[in-house]
Amino acid sequence: MGDDFYQKKSPDPVTDPYLIHFNPSVSQLIDLNISSESESEFTSIFSGNHPLPQAFPLAMVYSGHQFGVYNPRLGDGRGLLLSEAHATDGSVWDIYLKGCGPTRFARGFDGRATLRSSIREYLAGEAMHSLGIPSTRAIALIGIRDLIFRDRPELAAVLVRFSDSHIRFGSFEQPHYSNHPEKIPKLLDYAIQRHFPDINDSADKYRLFFREVVQRTAVLIAHWQTVGFVHGVMNTDNMLITGATFDYGPFGFLDRFNPGFTANSSDTSGRYAWSKQPQIGHWNLGKLGETLVSICGASALEAELNEYQPIYNQTFRALMGKKLGLDLLDEEFSNLVGRLFQILSENPADFTNFFRGLSNFPEGYCDSLYNYFPDKKVLDDWLSLYRRLLDREDQDNDLRARKMNRANPKFILRNHLLEHAISKAMKESDHSEIDRLFAFAQSPFDELPECLAKDNFDSQFYYADTPQKFIDWRLSCSA
Ligand code: AMP
Ligand code: MG
Asked: Which residues of the chain have pLDDT under 50?
């Protein structure tokens, strides 16, 4: 693509890298297997200590709007696109190292990533993917012995990220705002060939590119909303054109249903609260659209952007239909959903466990749901509305319950669970909780992940509502 868009750079060496976790589900996609003999070679290459043969590692240029304000000076400050990998099904993936030393975009920072934040990203990508939500994932998490300094000395790691793309909305903003509009068609052509080959031969391909990104972003955010995912830092440099969840920092999943919940403690205005995410997605797409005006014309882009809300609404409605086990998505259904969000916001119901419990209605019993409602009548009134809509559909209750249990996870990656795993890893060098959370994250809809069935442990700890002291817990960007 040319060095207008990147800096060529090799990863910096690290001290005594050690493999914390390896993700066979991802590595199998690209036929990469490790054995006890090859583990140290793998760790050495993917920590950055040895070059990957024929790789051309590079740091990508990008800028972006952070909290609504344009920042021209971003770019991969601590990450490198190491290589592309071809999967057995013909798809192409980026292998990216995060935390492998400062690049020319590091702005004085150390180019490293904390073990804490790397554990979070490693597990979060797998959790989102397993929930059926597009996301970057990781092949491996590698610890390094070099201490890094944040508020205090911290352990560090290199995350081996696996993603369909690393092209951000901010990748287009950088040439646009730095007065290099001639670079944008080049980037568009590359992005279309790599990610949207079906539109490559169309005379209208740039407009169709924007249409694709609008659609994918709307679908992505509808998914986020229905599992209660709060990204925390929806800056335009953290949005991928392929519509996958990207750049896990201070994210969180809703504990109780609190629409104003912001996962990021630096977000004092609540810009990135759960309830704002759909409109922020639209705003971010508007910023991407601005970079394409001279190519596509403002009115064409506006017409595409106007499709965002209908696509979002339609996807949200379909996903809510699955959560509630209803197929008929008419006005009565919308009223039911509207009323449900109202009663959930007025009562301290755990978002995940409420929906999971609902699949027991009406055949089994869902007594546990009443615990969330000081006034039982509030829930009874809603359940009788719900029953009426269920009765309209004449569905088999067992079948519906099974389907609902594939739409409403039993396990969600709560921040206090992550904190527990991080604390064991940092204080005791014990990575067993990472292994366990990984197993839970990969099987969110099961009653218990099969691989944990024989272990003797308290599974309720992982499925229970968030303990009071961790409810609406927020993290900072550096955590
Ligand atoms: P993030 O919060 O990870 O999206 O990062 C925002 C920007 O800061 C990106 O340009 C990163 O590459 C850069 N950055 C964050 N932390 C570091 C670090 N420790 N060293 C170098 N650059 C960093
Ligand atoms: Mg980022």
From this structure: none
